[in-house]
Amino acid sequence: MLAEHVDHVIGIDPDRDRITAAIVAADTAAVIDTTELTTTADGYRQLVTWADHHSSAESRAWSIEGAGSYGAGATQWLTRCGEWVLEFDRPSTTTAKDRAKTDTLDAVRAAREALGRTRLAQPRRGAERQGLRALTVARDGAQRARVAAINELRSVIVTGPIELRDQLTGLTRGALIDRCARLRACGEHAALKAALASIARRIRNLDAEIADLDIQIRPIVEHQAPQLLNEVGISHTTAARLLIAWSHPGRFPTEAAFARLAGVAPIQASSGQHTRHRLSRGGDRQLNRAIHSIVITRCRVDPATRNYLARRIADGKTPREARRCLKRYTARRIWRLLEHPPTRA
């Protein structure tokens, strides 16, 4: 347990503009002191000075809640200072009996719970990973906007006049966008044509934005994990999601821990005479989405995968249960490729 390796644990409950910290003694779990500082460089500098006043850097650890969101700044600063930083992912205890909840109480809980844990989570790190995550967030936003624009285009056409609707019905998506982008706001239904042309041009701009982001994502993935791209069903964007969740070697001690984060670890769901399992609904949903897309693609294009599904179904599994087994296998395969990549020639 962590209490066997340190003398003090400092729990941090971060917010957008401030962080609340509490230092706890490892032997008694008593609160020594608490403080509240701003989420700025000066605030982080004062945080380390405050910690040095109560403990030594060699015998303390930091337990940060939300190390990947509001606590990212403190995590990065403390890591650069050589501190031992842990990610407090999910509390195992509820709030106080009287339902009291404050930032200070949350910071104390982050410190005390870390003391008794045997599995210590390391925060995600790496400037290249952060850049990859930012590019992926931007691409997802552009993709959502593109889907919304396409739906808007089709809804305007459906409710439009019959003459214009007949001209645009039956076209492929690309042909429809090109045709609408060339419409001129003149003559009858000028306002409607202007709206269609505006939406079509927006879709084109979003297509260009997505393509540009893909160009920037591709070399990062090829540099960090080219072995993933050799797997069936893994594109550059899917590999980027896998890398963002995995972060760095050693973050997941076992492939089972990675599968649990991915939401593909089997959980008992037996009842009465029926013995069955289901997949976890927790974890990183973006990672779960990536593994789901890999499995769906393999079921469509990979003969070996289709043979595996057929064999599992012949053994008595339902198609859904067979895909769950395939997701668990996929998570194991990805973890091994990331943790133990093949040597490059």
N-to-C SSE string, H for helix and E for strand: EEEHEHEHHHHHHHHEEHHH
First CA to last CA: what distance?
A: 41 Å
Structural class, please? Answer: alpha/beta
What's the count of strands?
Answer: 7
* Topology-level CATH name of the largest domain: Nucleotidyltransferase, domain 5
Query: What number of structural domains do the residues give?
Result: 3
Radius of gyration: 26 Å
CATH class of the largest domain: Alpha Beta
Average pLDDT:
88
Helix content: 55-70%
> What CATH architecture of the largest domain would you give?
2-Layer Sandwich
Question: Mind explaining what this structure looks like?
Answer:
With 345 residues, the protein is an alpha/beta fold. The chain folds into 3 domains: 2-115, 2-Layer Sandwich (Nucleotidyltransferase, domain 5), CATH 3.30.420.10; 127-224; 228-339, no CATH class. It has 13 helices and 7 strands. The protein has helices at residues 41-54, 72-80, 103-115, 127-158, 162-168, 173-181, 190-224, 226-229, 236-246, 255-261, 285-301, 303-314, 319-339, and strands at 8-14, 18-25, 31-38, 60-65, 85-88, 266-268, 277-279. A 5-stranded mixed sheet has the order 3-2-1-4-5. A two-stranded antiparallel ribbon has the order 6-7. Strand 4 (60-65), helix 2 (72-80) and strand 5 (85-88) form a beta-alpha-beta unit. The longest helix has 35 residues, at 190-224. The two termini are 41 Å apart.
